[in-house]
C-alpha cells in the first residue's frame, strides 16, 4: 500500500502537470482531474487509517505502546518532556529520529505552502550560503550574414543579483498540563499553526517586501515595463490592453496575474453591453489549481498582500526566484519556562526572494 509521503508526491505531480496543460485542452485537463480525485481519495483514506491507528494506541496508553510512526514518536517525546532540537534541510543535522524529522518537515512545509500563492508560481531553490546570481542584462542579437562576411559581434552584459537569508521566527508557550492531558494532538496543531504563520509572513515578503530585513517583493522590485498609471478605474478592457501592449510576447503564454481580492472583485463585476459577466463561470474562462479566473487566457491569483493600486502580470517562474536556506528548524524547550509549568515551541526558517529577469513581468498601476 502506498505511503502518505508517496501519495502526497503523486498529488503534487498531478497538480504540476495540470498547471502545464495547454489552454483549451479540456480532455487532458479532465483526465488529470479524474486522476487527482482518485489519488486524493486514497490519501484521505490513508490519513484516516493513520489517525485511527494513533487513537487506538493512545487509548491503550502511551507508555504501553512503543511509537512506530512520526506523529506518535513526536507525541511521545513531548509527553516525556524531552528537550530536542531538529534542523531540517539539505545541509542540516537532526537529533530526532528520522521518522520524526520526516513528519515534522512535511507538516511545516505543507502548512506553509497552503498559506500563500507565491511559492507555487515562482522558481524555488536552496542555497547553502548567501550568494550572487548573475543574470543577463542584455541579450545576444543574431544577424543575417553574407557569404565570407564577418560575423555579427554581440556581447553579453550581466548583473549580479544578491540573495541573503532573512529569518522568520515563531515561538509559542503552552502549559505542561495542556500538552500531557489533551485528547487532541496539541503538538500537531502547533506545527500546523507555525507553518501557516511562516507561510503568511513569507508570502507578504515575496509579494510586498521592501528588501530591508525581508525579501524584495514582486510589487516593490523593478521590472522593465511599468506603464503610466491609469485614471483610477479598473476594467477587464484595461487589462487586455495592458497585457498585449506591455508584456513581451515571449512571456504571454506562461504569464500569471497577481492582484488583491478587492481588485479581482471589481473585475468580476464587469459586464458587457448585453449584461453578461465578462469573467464568466464557463469551463473555458475559469482556471483551477488555485486560480480565481482567466484573463487573456492566463490564470488570476489573489493574494491578500497585493496592493490596492497595482496588478502584476508576467512569468514568475522565470522572473522571480525564492531562495531558501536549509529548510525549517523546530525546537521543543521544556526548561526555559519549566519553573512556571510551560513548554516552549520554536520554529524558524531563512529565505529571500528577488527579481532575476526584469523583462518577464510588468506592473499595471490603476
Describe the structure.
Among the domains are: 1-65; 236-321 and 359-365, hypothetical protein PF0899 domain (hypothetical protein PF0899 fold). It is 37% helix and 22% strand. The protein is of the alpha+beta class and 366 residues long. Mean pLDDT is 78; it is low at 61-71 and 77-102. Strand 10 and strand 11 form a beta hairpin. The strands form three sheets. Strands 1, 2, 5, 10 and 11 form a five-stranded mixed sheet that branches. It has helices at 4-19, 26-60, 70-79, 98-113, 118-121, 176-181, 186-208, 236-246, 249-252, 261-268, 316-319, and strands spanning 84-87, 123-126, 131-136, 158-163, 166-175, 256-259, 293-295, 298-302, 310-314, 320-333, 342-355, 361-365. Helix 1 (4-19) runs antiparallel to helix 2, helix 3 (70-79) crosses helix 4 (98-113) and helix 4 packs across helix 7. The protein contains eleven helices and twelve strands. It starts with a helix and ends with a strand.
